Amino acid sequence: MRHFYTFFILLVSFIGLQPIHAQKSDTLHLEGTWRFEIDAKDQGTTAAWFARKLKDNIILPGSMLTNNKGNEVTIKTQWTGSIYDSSFYFNPRFEKYRQPGDVKFPFWLTPEKEYVGAAWYQKEITIPKDWDNKHIYLYLERPHTETLVYLDSQKIGIQNSMVAPHQYDLSSYLTPGTHTLSIRVDNRVKEINVGPDSHSITDHTQGNWNGIIGKLKLVATPEIYIENIQAYPNRAAKEVRFKIAVAQLKQQSKKVTLNFELVTFNTAAPQKINPYSTSFKINATQDTLVATVPLGETIALWDEFDPALYRAKVTLTSSKGVDHKTLQFGIRDFKTQATSFLINDRPVFLRGTLDNAIYPLTGHPPMDIDSWKKVFKAIKDHGLNHVRYHSWCPPEAAFKAADLLGIYLQPEGPSWANHGSALGLGRPIDTYIYEETNRMETHYGNFASYVMLAYGNEPTGRQVEYLSAFNNYWKQKDTRRLYTGASVGGSWPVVPNNEFMVRGGARGLDWKNETPQTLNNFTKNIAQFEVPFVSHELGQYCVFPNFNETKKYTGPLKAKNFELFEEDLKDHHMLDQADDFFMASGKLQALCYKYDIEKALRTPNYAGYQMLSLSDYSGQGTALVGVLDAFWDPKSYTDATAFREFANSTVPLAEIPKFVYTNDESFTATALISHFGKTPLKQNQNWQITNSAGISVASGSFDTPEIGYGLSTLGEVAVPLSEIETPQKLIFTISVENTEFKNHWDFWVYPKELPAVTTQVYECTSLDEQALKTLNSGGTVILNAAGRIVKGAEVVQTFIPVFWNTSWFQMRPPHTTGILIDPEHPLFNEFPTEYHSDLQWYSIVNNQQVMHLEDFPENFRPLIQPIDTWFMNRRLAMAFEAKVGNGKLMVVSVDLNDPEKDAAAHQLYYSLQKYMASAEFNPKNELDIALIQDLFKTPSKQQFNKYTNDSPDELKPKNEGE
Question: What's the pLDDT at 780?
Answer without folding.
Answer: 97
